[in-house]
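Rotation project, supervised by the postdoc (A.L.). Task for the rotation student: set up a whole-complex structure prediction and record inputs and outputs verbatim in this book. Inputs entered:
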Amino acid sequence: MRPFDLIRPESLDEALKALALPGARAVAGGTNLVDLMKLSVEAPAALVDIRRLPLHEISLGADTVVMGALVANSAAAADPAIVLQAPAISEALLSGASGQIRNAATLGGNLLQRTRCGYFRAADWACGKREPGSGCAAATGINAGHAVLGTSPHCMAVHPSDLAVALLALDATVHLRSRDGARRIPLGDFYRLPADTPHIETALASGELVTAIEVPLTAPAKTSRYLKLRGRASYEFATASVAAAVLVEHGVVAEVAIALGGVGTVPWRDRAAEAQLVGRPLSAPSIEAFCDALLAGAVTTPANAYKLPLLRGAIHRALERSATS
Amino acid sequence: MTTSVTVTVNGSERRLAVDPRRTLLDLLREDLRLTGTKKGCDHGQCGACTVLVNGRRVLSCLSLAVMAEGADVTTIEGVGTPDALHPLQAAFIRHDAMQCGYCTSGQIMSALEVLADPEVTTREQIAEAMSGNLCRCGAYAGIVAAILDVKAHAPV
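Outputs recorded:
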């Protein structure tokens, strides 16, 4: 691990000042960043321990819930308001990592975690995400676990978060702060496709901190479910996952939101495809037509093409679960 | 360059000067010579380094020692004694819940939180709750049986 300066701010202002230093990175749970620092994939000049900041609360409003960036994954998963009014969030969190990691990991860190692509994590392979412009070893390497949506010749690494997939289906907003002020970004605009700059993953600016995540508590959110398929039953990243929230009224779909994990370079959602489902019965043919539209742009390799039929099955199951919730 | 850190380990307050890069795992093993906590993968994938920090199980290999400032840490050395085993330690022996024993201290530290969780009652739920602790010898059946046994007969 490369040496770094340790900064332990007591207030948000102090933290934002520290984060404006060149090469500064915020750390909270450390479950991803410390691991990557051990691998020398991450080498911040300064580590800003933000855990003393007052961002540990879950605030329930009339029609939204605001979760502080420092809320532990395990705490959010067990929060009664989340469990009852946005169950996909709880299910996604509980499907991720292990009990130990969920206790340490925080919601803000979860959104900013890096891909588990093996070529990104090992410094002796080409990776444009780790070293801009160096190419993509996964494109011609072992890519059975890699993305089929949102890829580019420069990167096909999967975004690893389960939480972000649930939040995307629920129209969450990310609250950001920097010394220049505060702003809010819909989660759907937060993640950046790799294109030819795979090292730029989010809209987070230099010196900016995720302070909270806001989730509207809607009628479909109450029926939201998270289905995760993976190579082993627990403690594994998604091969394909689906967060689904559907409201069926008078036999037809009134509202629907479907987000995908494990298959995209970013958490994936296609609102135009969703619109095709609205006003139609939630039936096998209508879901298949939705999948056709959703996956029309998918790019597969011989090794990861299996993800498409896997995903179709997962979408059927997740919608069925949500519709009967 | 070192940074001062004060942690309470198994009830004793310890003040040390550490390299900021030192993990909590290395602080426990190298500085405090508490070698019951094991280094398995050192990357958060095996659970051998599990300890309790402020009463919650975490991976000490992914925690920087400086981030444990002011924390209350419990390691396997703080759970039971050779003459008065914790009920879970006794159950691990009774159920033959180990072969080589390398993962055992992490299994026990992790299981302490599972024991205290009233929502986890079935074999399947215990297996899920313990999925962060790998056992390469494959003693899982005994580990789950030991936890079930203590849950049923010696609530902690």
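Student's summary: The first helix of chain B runs from residue 24 to 31.
Supervisor addendum: The interface with chain A takes residues 1, 3, 20-21, 23, 42-44, 47, 50, 56-59, 62-64, 66-67, 69, 110, 113-114, 127-133 of chain B (CB under 8 Å).
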